[in-house]
Design brief:
This is Alpha/beta fold hydrolase. By secondary structure, the protein is α/β, with parallel strands linked by helices. The protein is built from 7 helices and 8 strands, in the order H-H-E-E-E-H-E-H-E-H-E-E-H-E-H. It has an 8-stranded mixed sheet with strand order 1-2-4-3-5-6-7-8, sandwiched between helices. Strand 1 and strand 2 form a beta hairpin. Helix 3 packs parallel to helix 7.
Length: 241
């Protein structure tokens, strides 16, 4: 009987060692993948030290307008993009009188915390009107949240993304660059869609060129300026309704 037990024990040990080795390799590959991300440019980081109205609270960066507001936008960054890269854009939005709350995602990927907005809302009970926004994959996850929580958000704002899930285009603003063909090809609705001529995928944030993205023919400043104008018009039209 002992002759049969030893080979079985060895087989189990070998199998366990193989499984452990595979898990270590997979974990190493994962951490290598997520550690290679787009960093925020200096112009984006400079927003943090520019003036009052911006506070850090855990994994949130809160950009408050000069006057109190009952409306706020929760923003999900694009995949593998440092959250601070979107500060110039959000700083311009908050100057229109809207509170912006930037969420730093686990491993810089919104897919790992698509329901982050729920926790954000609980922390700011004074806000009466919530909009959720996001860029690229962050937009897809924001769209998913809006689809699953239609009674908790007043609308959805997508940048370089399209509706993912069952959410009404009437309650959605979709902004994309004319050179971002992958988004244009996926759009099957036309309501509240704004195309920025000469814009690309990456310039909604300030993190430099993105692999596979077409070079923009306008500056990031111009693309973001037009984006803010579209958002301001969208929110104004909903407030007037």
């Amino acid at each position: 009987m002992s002759k049969h037990k030893m080979p079985l024990r060895k087989k189990l040990l070998i199998a366990g060692a193989v499984v452990l080795a595979v898990l270590i390799l997979l974990a190493g590959a994962f951490f290598w993948y997520v550690s290679d991300y787009y960093r925020a440019e200096d112009v984006a980081l400079a927003v943090l030290s520019g003036e009052n109205g911006i506070t850090l609270q855990g994994d949130l960066t809160i950009l408050s307008p000069s006057a109190p507001t009952d409306t706020a936008i929760i923003f999900y960054p694009g995949a593998k993009v440092e959250a601070q890269a979107y500060l110039p854009l959000l700083d311009q939005i908050r100057r229109t009188g809207i509170t912006c709350i930037l969420v730093e995602m686990p491993f810089n990927m919104a897919i790992f915390d698509s329901n982050a907005a729920e926790g954000v809302m609980e922390q700011f009970p004074e806000v009466e009107h919530w909009y959720i926004a996001g860029h690229s994959m962050g937009g897809a996850m924001a769209s998913q949240f809006a689809s699953n929580h239609p009674d908790e958000v007043d609308g959805l704002i997508l940048l370089g993304a399209y509706i993912y899930g069952d959410y009404s285009p009437a309650d959605t603003l979709t902004v994309y660059g004319s050179l971002n063909q992958s988004v244009e090809d996926k759009l099957d609705y036309t309501e509240n869609v704004v195309e920025i001529e000469g814009g690309n995928h990456a310039q909604f944030g300030n993190y430099g060129p993105q692999k596979g993205d077409a070079p923009a023919t306008i500056s990031a400043e111009e693309q973001q300026k037009q984006t803010v104008e579209a958002i301001e018009e969208f929110l104004s039209s909903r407030n007037a309704a």
